[in-house]
């Protein structure tokens, strides 16, 4: 069968997933020398953006040189994905999937959180970033996302919605902060808290892991929420993998009151929400 494969909007995307008729369904860029995206992760990410009619089972197959589908990719957690073209087929090897219509969110502009000088010295240039934007408190309450916060702190510290809990925050370097807010960097808690780079990984930091102090915190109040990281990762996937789709704005700028700065004034602020990406992550490779 001769297929004319649709080109991705971003030519650097070297993992491309197609319907049987050559329609591009999803794509992303990986570093061929440092492949940290496994078969299981690819299946999981695709399930976030595919709608399979009739809830049919489906699988991913590499496209061989003669354009026929190769052996099915098993959803295992150890084998890394190779760059190349792939088919998404149902059990009868007829493509039935289509791109999900979920809208990708535009990155909110989150102002730097206010820190006192002594805290700034402790964390040495790190910026506090909300995982879920504080400007979207209506959506937060509507979707009951506060169920992801287990912080028992009083409302006077984290708000009645719990949106300002340290569990909804990370400390990031300036460059990482911007990439995180633009959904170019995510954390996958279901893959050992791997750092996932959506785009060119020139520093080879994809696949490194979130620091233990951010994952677990010093007590139950300040470890980062795995479910909120899943939410953020899903936004990264929508924005970066969905085929040839421009991101659509979903919310306005995050310019609301910033109570998290008050939380970060505590003596253990650095341990509460610490993660160092890009130039700061080299020593934390698992």
Automatic annotation (TrEMBL):
Protein name: HNH nuclease domain-containing protein
InterPro entries: HNH_nuc
Lineage: Eukaryota, Fungi, Dikarya, Ascomycota, Pezizomycotina
Record-annotated HNH nuclease domain positions: 125-188
């Amino acid at each position: 069968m001769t297929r004319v494969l649709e080109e991705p909007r971003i030519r650097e995307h070297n993992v491309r997933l197609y319907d049987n008729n050559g329609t591009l369904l999803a794509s992303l860029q990986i570093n061929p020398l440092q492949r940290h995206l496994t078969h299981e992760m690819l299946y999981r990410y695709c399930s976030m953006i595919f709608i399979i009619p009739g809830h049919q089972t489906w699988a991913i197959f590499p496209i061989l040189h003669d354009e026929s589908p190769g052996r099915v990719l098993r959803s295992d957690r150890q084998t890394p994905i190779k760059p190349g073209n792939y088919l998404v087929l149902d059990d009868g090897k007829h493509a039935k999937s289509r791109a999900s219509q979920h809208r990708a969110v535009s990155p909110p502009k989150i102002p730097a959180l206010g820190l006192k000088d002594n805290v700034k010295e402790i964390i040495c240039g790190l910026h506090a970033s909300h995982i879920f934007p504080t400007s979207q408190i209506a959506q937060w309450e509507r979707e009951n996302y506060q169920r992801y916060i287990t912080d028992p702190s009083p409302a006077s510290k984290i708000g009645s919605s719990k949106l300002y809990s340290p569990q909804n925050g990370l400390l990031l370097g300036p460059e990482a902060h911007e990439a995180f807010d633009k959904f170019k960097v995510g954390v996958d808690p279901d893959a050992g808290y791997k750092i996932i780079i959506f785009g060119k990984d020139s520093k080879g930091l994809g696949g490194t892991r979130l620091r233990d102090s951010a994952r677990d915190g010093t007590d139950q109040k300040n470890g980062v929420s795995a479910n909120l990281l899943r939410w953020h990762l899903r936004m990264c996937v929508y924005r970066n993998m969905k085929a040839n789709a421009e991101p659509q704005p979903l919310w306005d700028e995050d310019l609301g009151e910033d109570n998290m700065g008050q939380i970060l004034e505590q003596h253990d602020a650095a341990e509460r929400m610490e993660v160092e990406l890009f130039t700061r992550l080299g020593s934390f490779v698992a």
